[in-house]
Amino acid sequence: MPPTYERERPASSIVQAMNRKAYYPLFVAAFGAAACSNAAPASSSAEAGAGGSANTAGAAGASSAQAGQPSAGVAGSAAGVSGAAAVGGAAGVGGAAAVGGAAGVGGAGASGSAGVAGSAGAAGGSSTCAGLLCEDFEQGMIDPAKWDLKEGAGGTAVVQTAMVAHGKYALQVHGLASKTDDYALIVSKNAPAALSGAHFGRANFFITPKPLTSGHTQMVFAGRNGTGSANGPGPLQKLRYMEVSNINGGWQAGFDLLDISPLIEEVVYPAGSPQVPTVTWTCLEWQFTDAPDSVNFWIDGKLVGTFDDQHVSYPSGHTPGMPLYNGSSSGLIGGFDLFGFGFHDWHPNKPFDLYYDDIVLDTKRVNCLP
């Protein structure tokens, strides 16, 4: 394993940083469509089961879960004749009437069984996910089917009830004042392929104490494992990724390539050195794009920072508009299939807690919850 590679930055204002890390870990998140507590309510047609014919019955509802927008409890309507629709519609919502069609005027028993399939429509209608991948932790645990848990050097992650933004549960990650970098991340499994290109994210976070604890604390990231010969120490040794992080109390955004030695890192510190809100629930939104490579992020709906080949604070000396790396400002990550939330604290010196709730990833901007 190559020795740790660190870089010195000047020490004035937030645009200067502490010794840098050798490589970053990462965590990703993947889940289909049903965990977040932030989607628009289901349309009334999904609950009514009105007017649908048996031919289109339950199957339509079964495909409704993806974006919190049910295709229709119309699925459960019973018999293709108006008299049966009322009975079949009820079955579409509750999924309770295999014999629903038989009760309708002229309704066939076969149509009633379609109403049972309508119960899948009801299941789709129960989804509250506002995007392609969501997590609100309301299962009361870190779901091993959705997330890989990465903990190191004493960092821990747990779902708890004492500090939440919405619902009953939220994720808590705890960092130690260790002499080496510590981390606790949840990383997605089998993320939707639609997120592999440009995408948006949202998470509510709460951090305490004030994040003046290190030169760099990663919060959210997205990337993929590269094919270069270099290896980082873990948890993801070859990760190429974009991130939003905090540094000396302010914000940082950019990218890292860990499969190259020495590692490549380019970041921006937003103009005016806006500080990371602490001891309050705050909405963080971001946009990661790999073609061209750029990061935008918002705090409580307000754009705070942009990273691209026009906006580079580190390393110093970058000429706006010049390529970011190796003659290019596009495709440096290679797409996104790993998504992570939590923390990785480089050179920590003070314990802290960071909480996450209402996580959403999508191909369009998600926006903050009320």
Task: Describe what this molecule looks like in 3D.
This protein has 370 residues and is of the alpha+beta class. It folds into two domains: 82 residues, no CATH class; 230 residues, Sandwich (Jelly Rolls), CATH 2.60.120.200. The relative contact order is 0.19. The protein starts with 43 loop residues before the first helix and ends in an 8-residue tail after the last strand.
Keywords:
Jelly Rolls; 30% strand; 370 residues; seven-stranded antiparallel β-sheet; 5 helices; alpha+beta
Number of strands: 15
Q: Uncertain runs with pLDDT below 50, 5 residues or more? A: 1-126
Termini separation: 47 Å
> Order of helices and strands, N to C?
HHHHHEEEEEEEEEEEEEEE
**CATH architectural label of the largest domain:** Sandwich
Q: Please report the first level of CATH classification, the CATH class of the largest domain.
A: Mainly Beta
Radius of gyration: 24 Å
Number of helices: 5
Task: Please give the domain count.
Answer: 2
Biggest beta sheet summary: 8 strands, antiparallel
- Beta-strand percent range: 25-35%
CATH topology of the largest domain: Jelly Rolls
Helix fraction, binned, reads: 10-25%
Shape: globular
- Tell me the structural class: alpha+beta
Residue-averaged pLDDT, rounded? 74
